[in-house]
Every structure is written in C-alpha cells, then in structure tokens.
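A note from the maintainers: we've had questions about how concatenated examples are separated. There is no special marker in the raw files; a new sequence line simply starts the next protein. For clarity in this README we add a label.
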Amino acid sequence: MTFIVTEQCIRCKYTDCVEVCPVDCFYEGPNFLAINPDECIDCALCVPECPVNAIYSEDDLPAEYKHFTDINKKLADKWPNITRAKAAPVDADEWANVPSKEGYLEE
C-alpha cells in the first residue's frame, strides 16, 4: 500500500507534508506534489499535515481519484525530489477548496 496525492493539491502545493516524510518520497512539480509509491513506507505521517486533505491511503482512495495512483507514479519518476517545506504559492488559499482542478495540473 502507498499514499496518493490527489487533485486537492493542484495549485495549492502546500509542502507541510514533505517535512514529516521519513523517507523523502515526495516529488515537486510546477503546481502539484506527487508521492513515489515505490518509496512510500505507508507511515501516514503526511496525511494530517496536508491542510487541504489531498493525501489518501491507496486503500481509502475515493473512486474518482483512483487514476491519481498512476499520475503520482508517472510524475514522481520525472520530477525532482523535495525534502524541505517551501512557501505555498501566493494564491494557494484561493485554490484550496476549488473542485475539479485536474485540468490545471502542470506536468
């Protein structure tokens, strides 16, 4: 099992989750974070740190987000690793509760 970052992260990209990850399995893109499922140790420390509730256990992933498992894997394979928190985008709070953001995902 692994944890999956879903569309709530898009254009918010809060990095609170990155700081607590003991295995540094987060990868950073222009406006989204991804978890490498091959590196995640299922510790769940990241879940409560996400202020927009974007991270789910693979077992608890809602049906509409199942495809984010493949998205996380694909993007983690091409993006750089992130191990320290950074400032969120200046408009992150404005995007926090916007539904259906997948179309805004920048690869």
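[label: protein 2]
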Amino acid sequence: MSAVAFDTLKYSKRLKDAGVPEKQAEVEAEALAEVLEIRLRDLAAKDDIQTLRGEIKALDEKLSGKINALDEKLSGKINALDEKLNGKINALEERLDNKINALDEKLSGKIGSLEERLGDKMTLLEQRMTIKLGALMVVAVGAVATLVKLL
C-alpha cells in the first residue's frame, strides 16, 4: 500500500501563522493526519486492482463456459422437442387425411347413389310424360277429326 507523506509540522506551522493557537493547530494537524491515513487505507493499490481484474477475467471465463454449456444443452432439448412435435403433427396430419379421404369416399358413394336414384326417377318421369303427351295427341287428333266431320 502506498503512503502519501503528510507533513503535520508544516501544516501546524501554517495554522499558527494564520492565528490559530499552538495547541489547537497541533491537534488539527494530528486529526487531519489520522483522517488521511484512514482514507489511504481504504484506497485500492495497483496490485489490488490487477488482482481484481484477474479474478473478474477468470469469473467471466467460467461463466462463459457455463453459459455455452447451458446453450448447448438447451439447443439439444429444443431440437428433441421440435422433432417430437413434428412427429406428432405428422401423425395428426395423416389421421386427418385418412378421415378426409374416408368422408370423401362416403360422400362420393352417397352422391353416386343419389345420382342413380335421380336418373331412375327422371327416366320414369320421362316415360310418364311421353305417355301423357301421346294421350293428348290422340285426343287432339280425335277432336280435330270430329270437328272436320261436323263442319
């Protein structure tokens, strides 16, 4: 620890020259010397600062190592979780595709059945209309023939 020289005799003499009583000047000089000594003990020396810098650097390296290890560990866990989630998502997509395909087949079958039934009904309706149209034609021809004979 470096010490700063404080000349209490010189300080005391300056106080006396300024009009301070001799006893008071000596006490003030001693008190100031004690205060300066205490303050100097509290100050860090260059060696203390260098030691502290070394400790900080070592702690920084230690923490950097731990942070890197945690980063790698977390990256591994995140990748594993990502793979697990992707697997579950793919399984859900496959199940959804299967259900959609099953519904599509079921609907296609029902639509085909409805088209077939509608086609049968349309054919039956067409036949009935043909018969009715034919009957109307016979009645119309008969009416025209009757009108021609009467007139």
